[in-house]
Design brief:
With about 140 residues, the protein is of the alpha/beta class. It has a single domain, classed as Response regulator (Rossmann fold). The protein is built from 5 helices and 5 strands; from the N terminus they run E-H-E-H-E-H-E-H-E-H. The chain has a 5-stranded parallel sheet with strand order 2-1-3-4-5, sandwiched between helices. Helix 2 packs parallel to helix 3. It starts with 8 loop residues before the first strand and ends in an 8-residue tail after the last helix.
Length: about 140
């Protein structure tokens, strides 16, 4: 992973390979550096290694996580880690967007919860409001 400005790094946690690949690809094309986690346990491992950020380590600017994943859900990770120093803003995505899930996510401080299917342009616009993209170099 190349070095970039602090806060430009996005961690995407999604257990569906096609969805994760699509999200990572669109975010990279939009100028972001992206780390991937295949499930809730990998998400937790990445956060354990990056919170708080160590000297010389690029800080996470945003987490985008599916809610329902094997091991731990995105909501469980948010609930357990949200008070850690350096915990970044978080967007949750879900195919099961019942009102109770949205209320729980808001209670734990999520920036937004997007119900699948959503427009990728909508996600990129939301991400851009949270953290600016790196300028593209031709």
């Amino acid at each position: 992973m190349s070095e970039g400005k602090p806060g430009q790094l996005i961690l995407v946690a999604e257990d569906d390979l096609e969805m994760r690949s699509m999200l990572v690809s669109v975010l990279r094309v939009s100028g972001y550096q992206v780390l991937e986690a295949r499930n809730g346990l990998e998400l937790l491992t990445e956060l354990d290694e990056r919170l708080p950020p160590r000297p010389g380590q690029q800080a996470l600017g945003l987490i985008i996580s599916d809610i329902r994943m094997p091991g731990l859900t995105g909501l469980e990770v948010l609930e357990g880690m949200r008070h850690e120093p350096g915990f970044p803003p978080m967007i949750l995505i879900t195919a099961f967007g019942d009102p109770e899930t949205h209320v729980a996510a808001e209670r734990f401080g999520v920036v937004a919860t997007l119900d699948k299917p959503f427009l990728l342009e909508e996600l990129v616009e939301l991400v851009g409001r949270i953290i600016p993209a790196e300028p593209q170099v031709a």
